[in-house]
Amino acid sequence: MHLQRVLRISRPRFRIYELGPYMIGLIAGMALFGVPWDKSMWFLIAVFFLYFLIPANIWIYGINDIYDYETDKLNPKKQAYEALVEPKEHLKLWRRIAFSTLPFLLFIPWEIAPIVAFLLFLFFSGQYSAKPIRAKGLPLLDMFFSAWHYVTTALFWFLLIAGPENIGWMFVLAALAWAMAMHAFSAVPDIQADKEWGVDTVATLLWGLGTIFLCLLLYLLAGSIAFFYHWILGLLGVLYIALMIVALWQYKKWTLFSIYKIFPRVNTLSGMVLFFVVLSRLLG
Fold it and tell me: Which of 17, 200, 235, 249 has the fewest beta carbons closer than 10 A?
């Protein structure tokens, strides 16, 4: 399997989704405990920056495309907007997945907290699509697994720098709520196709309006918690809440896939704002 093919499978437009939490967790740890000037630490920061930029997405979306083939082949979005991985490619893709992730295990510092965080990232992101759990086919559990693998990415470096005793659990709750809402909304455009193919998701359970309303509540929770951390983050919550209100209001007219397509840009903007808010605290 050619590198270009593997990179397309890794969803380049979604790379910021893993890299963003990684950088936020790193900067948040530095804001609490200062910048690690040790050269070996900066080497590890660069190594895992590379991992969460590309290989992590090969792990997530490669496993997803292998286990989703039976439904993906019936989904026009996969052929026109993403990449359909044929069964004859699966073994080669498994090799690329293993080769792009396993070597990084050797670089994890020998401390229990970051090791657990990294393994939980692999577990939640892998078992979201893979058997035996395949959480993506279990309504409500699907968005829980999806959300936790983003949170564990952020916790990876934070735990290494700050330690588990310094985790702000309310902020973790806000991150979980935001990520669960993001996942749930992304499932809404696929409701009809998922129903036809017998795929159970949070969106097929609650249908469109119910799922969007759940997203509204989750963004309200995340935004409310974030507001107490910094008022600018509260404004970001208002942005997401406004998008959900528009989606509810225009549900019969609005093309939800259009909102789905702009979400990477909105999430990138939000991640940048969150990053610079945390960075400003680091810089005093």
Answer: 249
Write out pLDDT tens, residues 125-138: 999 999 999 998 89
Encode pLDDT of 51-70 as tens digits: 999 999 999 999 998 998 77
Q: Into which CATH architecture does domain 168-284 fall?
A: Up-down Bundle (1.20)
Angstrom distance (rounded) from CA 208 to CA 41: 46
Instruction: Give the type of residue at 267.
Output: N
d(CA 238, CA 3): 40
| Every domain of the chain and the residues it spans | 1-167, 168-284
What topology does CATH give the domain 1-167?
A: Tetracycline Repressor; domain 2 (1.10.357)
Over range 19-39, report the average pLDDT.
83
